[in-house]
Amino acid sequence: MKIRHPESFVKTEESIFEPNLYIMPKSKGLGIIGLAELVVSIFLSNEVKDRNGKPASLIQLANTFEYVFNCKFVSIYDKRAEIYNRKSYNLTKSLDFLKGTLERGRKGNTFNK
């Protein structure tokens, strides 16, 4: 519909996205380093693309997460190094936390299939 009749979808005022989500920096399950773990994992997957269809850079992903969650990594490269320096059993600490949360949610869900 937008392609055939673009005049019907003209914005009179450009909407400004103001995120109202926050990450607690020192949160046990998902703090800044946990968010960085997600960003680095998504970056390594090459599954998120930029507007040219190329895999998003680590900086693009980090900037987007900072914007959406009102936080600062200071240096995503330092956070990546911190993640990589973890012991192998602790490498995916935040992803494991999220997986456990999802599993508990599924078990408590009364709307199975």
Question: How would you characterize the overall build of this protein?
Answer:
The chain has 113 residues and is mainly alpha-helical. It is 45% helix and 0% strand. The chain is built from 4 helices and no strands. The chain has helices at 32-45, 58-69, 76-84, 93-108. α1 packs antiparallel against α2 and α1 crosses α3. The model has no long low-confidence stretch (mean pLDDT 87).
What is the first-to-last residue Cα distance?
A: 34 Å
Strand percentage, roughly?
A: under 5%
- Integer-rounded radius of gyration: 18 Å
Largest sheet: none
Number of strands: 0
The total of helices stands at 4
Helix content: 40-55%
Poorly predicted regions: none
Structural class: mainly alpha
Topology as a string of helices (H) and strands (E)? HHHH
Average pLDDT works out at 87
Morphology = extended
